[in-house]
Amino acid sequence: MKKYIKKILLIGNHGVGKTSLATRYVENKFSDAYLSTIGVNIMKKNLILNDQGNVAAVALMLWDVEGANKNQNVPLHYAKGCNAFIVVIDATRPQTAENLQQHLEYIHNFDVAIPFIIAINKSDLGSTVTLDEAAFQQKYSNCVGIVYTSAKEDKNVEELFTRITKRTIW
Ligand SMILES: Nc1nc2c(ncn2[C@@H]2O[C@H](COP(=O)(O)OP(=O)(O)OP(=O)(O)O)[C@@H](O)[C@H]2O)c(=O)[nH]1
Ligand SMILES: [Mg+2]
What is the share, in percent, of the chain residues with pLDDT greater than 70? Predict the structure, then answer.
């Protein structure tokens, strides 16, 4: 079996659920309390991926980065050696989707071709944010997809992380 080490950055505005998604995926836990991340929090998970008869062992490093609201920047050196990005939006706060362009610019400044996926999180609360996946993928060929997630109810969390990780391998 082939072995890989992959680094994925989670970025987005403050309070959209980056830490909650990573914690749900790595530890299968969720908390309603909000403890804002300072700097970056690195989580690790070992996983086995299967795709059309191919099998891979992945040591995944998730860099859960402090939120960056409008005109705030994530330090570019955090992305060093990064293989993919997850951009998180809050389904209940359209403002967090308006900042999407800023987060995409960050990704493009790092590498125009690197894969990224968008998570519209807190979908358990209903969604006032809608994004056209097809239009998006037409505009950005490196957009792997748009997934409605809930860290709270564990909806599409596994799907989110495995879909983007697979794209870094196959
Ligand atoms: N209802 C609901 N609440 C959520 C969900 N995900 C996160 N939250 C809540 O939203 C708040 C912020 O979550 P965090 O995971 O800390 O957000 P973050 O993006 O890491 O925030 P920063 O570290 O400040 O950038 C917390 O109170 C969480 O409990 C979700 O899927 N559904
Ligand atoms: Mg956080």
Answer: 100
Q: Is the torsion defined by CA of 131, 41, 74, 62 positive or negative?
A: negative
CATH of the domain at 125: 3.40.50.300
pLDDT at 127: 83
Angle, helix 18-27 to helix 157-169, in steps of 10 degrees: 90
β-bridge pairing 54-65 and 40-51: antiparallel
Domain residues for the domain of 100 are 2-169
Residues with CB under 6 A from ligand 1: 14-20, 31-32, 34, 36-37, 66-67, 121-122, 124-125, 150-152
Locate the ligand 1 atom nearest the alpha carbon of residue 23 and give its number.
15
| Residue-wise pLDDT tens digits, 103-160 | 999 999 999 999 999 999 999 999 889 899 999 899 999 999 999 999 999 999 999 9
Domain count, the chain: 1
Atom 27 (ligand 1) nearest CA: 34
On whether the CB atoms of residues 45 and 23 are closer than 8 A, the answer is no
Residue 150 alpha carbon, nearest atom of ligand 1:
31
